[in-house]
Amino acid sequence: MPGEQYKHIFLRNLHETQRYTSPTGGSSKRRVRQDRDRAAHGNFLRERLNQAWRDADERAQEAAIYTEREGAYIEFEGEPGFDLLFKSLEKLGRGDQIRLLNVREEVNEDNGRRTVATVYVPFSQRGYFLRKLDKYLEGNRRGQNLINSIANIRSAVLESFWIREERNQIPGQEPGWVEVWLRDEDGTASGELQRAIERVDIEVSANSLSFPERTVRLAKANRAGLEHMITCSDVVAEMHPAKEVCSFFLDMNNLDQTLFAEDLGQRTRYNGANEVAICILDTGINNGHLLIAPFLAADDMHTVDPGWGTHDHDGHGTLMAGTALYGDLTDLLQNNDVVTIGHLLESAKILPPPPRQNSRDLWGYISAQGVSRAEIRAPGRKRVICMAVTAPDHSSRGNPTSWSAEIDNITSGAEDESRRLMIISSGNIIEEAKWRNYTNSNIVSGVEDPGQSWNALTVGAYTEKIQIQDPTMVGFAPVAPARGLSPFSRTSSTWPTAKWPIKPDVVFEGGNVAVGPTYATTHEDLELLSTHHNPTIAQFAPFNATSASTALAANMAAQIQNAYPNSWPETVRGLLVHSANWTDEMLHQFLPTNVARPVYSQVLRACGYGVPDLDRALYCASNSLTLISEAELQPFDRHPTDSRYVTRDMHLYHLPWPTDILAALGPTNVQMRVTLSYFIQPGPGEVGWKDRYRYPSHGLRFKINGPRESEVDFVRRINALARDEDTDVDTEGPADRWKIGKARNVGSIHSDIWEGSAADLATSHLIAVYPTVGWWRERSHLGKWASRCRYSLIISIRTPEEAADIYIPVAQAVRVTVPVTVRTDRGDQG
User: Fold this and answer.
1) CA–CA separation, 60 vs 71, rounded Å?
2) CA distance 397 to 744
3) Contact indicator for 524, 639 with CB cutoff of 8 Å
């Protein structure tokens, strides 16, 4: 970015708030079988329900020697190819409540898909569904769709609670660790579970995770123990296998590296006026390394378990530290430039040393404890949390888990109103056979848990490393082309694209793999260089895969936070995505060419939004302009005249557009980019992901007015409350100018690029931010319907170089000082 560099312009209170209702309200029509023989179907379900209650009575008698049961678990099965109206199975309100515990999709022998729901019914509500069946048999039309949607009813069994994972993972005779998700409306579920199993040999971890209506505990039990848990407890909602995590150790010989390290240390300066830190959750960090010591104080080295120590027992944490501080040392060791670093390090050890490598716990709890240790020590710091620890080969296909949900809990500030920026890795492909099947293996290898977190910035890897200089590697070539996806990187290509977030969000350098005639292998020539955890052996060590790319992302995030010290975590995350672009090679690899118009969904799911650019994330130029608004709105409210809960506010911005300058440029092609970044509060639990049972607390979307579309027409188009009953809305927005379009509307960060003529953009200066539904509204009994949410809105215009100065006129219009940074051959890394 040549010439002057300007700071981004933060807009203060430039929006107006309007009451909002979606013009497309209402849910999609359900597919319910209507050709039922009413008498035969009703009598069949009555007998099945009575049998379920007989089974429940037997279980209650069996449980009586341990505890007194207050209800039963009953399973409702839908018809293959049709919808089960599971939301109507729940009965809330006063008195004993019938609660929906989980909803899952099963495939029968004929590959027909059916929906199955597990419901907890108190004994006091035994007659509730029987009365519905009586009315159905009497010909009452009210409620008939629910009964028609049910194909079978049975007493729930252990498999009814085993969600998503293969059932062969249910422990057999040998005990195994299992996540037990408890329905918990009042905070008493853990105690009830403990009482139900206190006479049985089941080990339960003392730690727990808490979410709206859910508490998660870790239990070690065999199949019989889990069945006992269901028989004797009223609070079980679902179960998942507990996960192990992985890290890897890299080593190399000491090639007399100390002199190089000392030289770099002497050239390094700290500029930490804004008190920014990167907190690394890993195996610990060795702060005795001469390149790390000035940036990591002993008081900033923490551990979740004092018995583990704070030292780096493995090497991975110190590799992360070196890259998070300096970037790729390969570049810095080859010049004599002064290096300026503007952030410190913190270490939170969350992985145990051998022989405790298989230590089991709730990894969400462990991650939260690591963050908490650092925050207690230095509560006033601006902090980037960095974690490159994932569950090996565990792709959830985007579904939330206890770990990813706790990441969302931590970042959203659900418990303490403190939002946090967390950067995590997408996980790695480590199998040699899969490297040789590049890029097919990347497409089918899903992002590992907890990389599906909505709020975290999940980082994948690309590579520019293609030079193999080792003479012993004759016959080997790099697997990935220059600036292509790294062979290590996992994707969300196989996830349901309309449901789960785009992951990874961005990609950074992660190294390459060498492939020869018979096998593929990692090699130092194709990796980054970082700090070795044992300086008596070596100063430097090779570093690769998404661990390295995640550390690079944390480095850039810290630089953004340092440049804009008062910016929100949502903004820093937004700028990383906003500055990213796909390389030509990525488009060549993943952009379909057999369609009339480019479809970017496959590129997104493989490479996220691309490779972030530090200069674009930090600065504008005379021919580019970036506007940022950090704002808060109330998405939902209670209707003033009835008991409905409805959407409430939208924000309308009149952007300080360089209208005259853009109009004068006429047909010149220009580009506008919009990024909307916010954090959701998670509501995990496998109760389905549509209707009222939603994971995110809320959603936000943006829309821009079309060329020459007036403000009145624009607001009427997007907001039903702005219309009269006889209003005929016939205007359209600039949908055909967006690169990504509707595919951007997943997760909690949405970014898209508009391209067109400057003349058209001159009149597209209105932008609306409005809410979409979430559990804050749909689960109104939880009391969050009046909550407020924050967001960061980032808008950029780019014109051809030297075409016009669009920055200074806008800066003057909004009355901000024009701070200039003169471009030099910058050697700073922080």
Assistant:
1) 8
2) 18
3) no
What pLDDT is attached to residue 692? 46
Calculate the average pLDDT of the chain. Answer: 88
Q: Which of 89, 108, 107 is nearest to 98 (CA)?
A: 89
Task: Name the residue with higher pLDDT: 231 or 425.
Answer: 425
Start-end of H helices in 14-152: 38-63, 128-137, 144-149
- Residue 732: the pLDDT is 54
Name the nearest CA neighbour of 128 among 108, 153, 163, 151: 153
Q: Cα(756)–Cα(382) distance, rounded to whole angstroms?
A: 39
Q: What percentage of the chain carries pLDDT values higher than 70?
A: 91
Separation of alpha carbons 71 and 50, rounded Å? 14
**250-296 residue pLDDT tens:** 233 344 578 878 989 999 999 888 899 999 999 999 999 999 999 99
CB 792 within 8 A of CB 571: yes
Task: Look up residue 173 and give its two tokens.
Answer: 């005779």
How far is 479 from 437, CA to CA, in rounded Å? 9
CB 627 within 8 A of CB 9: yes
CA–CA separation, 664 vs 668, rounded Å?
Answer: 9
One-letter amino acid at 802 equals: E
Rounded to the nearest 10 degrees, the angle between the axes of helix 402-412 and helix 363-377 is 30
pLDDT of residue 370 exceeding 90: yes
What is the C-alpha separation between 282 and 347, in angstroms, rounded? 8
pLDDT of residue 734: 60
Both structure tokens of 568: 């929100």
Rounded distance between C-alpha atoms, residue 222 and residue 220, angstroms: 7
Q: Which helix (H) or strand (E) holds 269?
A: strand 268-270
What letters, b where the CB count within 10 A reaches 16 and e where it falls short, cover 382-409? bbbbbbbbbbebbbbebbbbbbbbbbbb
**pLDDT beyond 70 at 751:** yes
Spatial distance between the Cα atoms of 491 and 506, rounded to a whole number of angstroms:
11
pLDDT tens profile 715-744: 988 888 765 555 555 555 565 789 998 899
Collapsing DSSP to helix, strand or coil, 625 comes out as strand
pLDDT exceeds 70 at position 356: no
Distance between CA atoms of residues 523 and 525, nearest Å: 5
Question: 627, 716, 711, 718: which is closest to 674 by C-alpha?
Answer: 627
Q: Could you count the other beta carbons within 10 Å of the beta carbon of residue 758? A: 23
Report CA-CA distances (Å) from 426 to 333, 451, 461, 545, 680.
Answer: 29, 5, 9, 10, 20
Which helix (H) or strand (E) is 25 found in, with range? Answer: none
Return the residue matching tokens 């028609």. 148
Cβ–Cβ under 8 Å, residues 14 and 629: yes
Q: Are strands 421-425 and 457-463 parallel, antiparallel or unpaired?
A: parallel
Beta carbons of 170 and 201 less than 8 angstroms apart: no
Quick one: pLDDT at residue 5? 85
Name the amino acid, one letter, at 675.
Answer: T
Contact 569, 598 (CB under 8 A): no
- 485 within 8 A of 439, measured Cβ to Cβ: yes
- Closest-CA residue to 448 (of 164, 611, 688, 243): 243
d(CA 539, CA 517) in angstroms, rounded, equals: 34
Element (H, E) at 341: strand 339-341
Phi and psi dihedrals of 439, rounded to 5? -100, 0
Task: State the pTM of this model.
Answer: 0.89
Q: What's the chain's Rg over C-alpha atoms?
A: 28
Q: What are phi and psi of 304, to 5 degrees?
A: -70, -35
Question: What's the count of helices (H) and strands (E) in the chain, helices before strands?
Answer: 22, 37
Q: Which token pair is 336?
A: 């004599």
Count CB neighbours of 129 within 10 A.
25
Name the token pair of 406: 């706790």
CA distance linking residue 366 with residue 410, whole number of Å: 12
Q: Region 452-464: what's the mean pLDDT? A: 97
Residue among 288, 283, 281 nearest 346 (CA): 281
